[in-house]
Amino acid sequence: MKRPMPRYNYQCEECEEYFEVRHSMIESLEECIHCESEEVRRVPSIPNYIMKVNKKANKKAGSIVEEYIKENKRSIKEEKEKLRSQEYKNE
Questions:
Q1: Most buried by CB count within 10 Å: which residue of 10, 46, 75, 91?
Q2: 1-22 pLDDT, tens per residue?
Q3: With contact defined as beta carbons under 8 Å apart, do 47 and 41 qualify?
Q4: Exposed, middle or buried by CB within 10 Å (0-12, 13-18, 19+), for 2?
C-alpha cells in the first residue's frame, strides 16, 4: 500500500504567498510555486488529526449532558416499548 506524501506549508519571502506542497520528509522546496523566487521558508503547522481531537475535547459540558440525556431518553423509550409488547403477549 502506497502512503500519501506529507503536506508542508511554506511562505515566500518575496511575494508573501502561503502555499501547501506535498513531498517526502527528506525533500525540501527550492522555489516559490507562484513567483519562482528562491526565498521560501517552511511554516510550522498543526496536523489535522490533532485539530480533530481538540475539537472533540473542546465540547461544552452542557452539550455532553444534553447528549447523555437524549441517549437515556431513547433507552427508556425502547425499554417501555419492550414492556408494552410483553404485556400484550401475556393477555
A1: 10
A2: 667 788 889 999 999 999 999 9
A3: no
A4: exposed
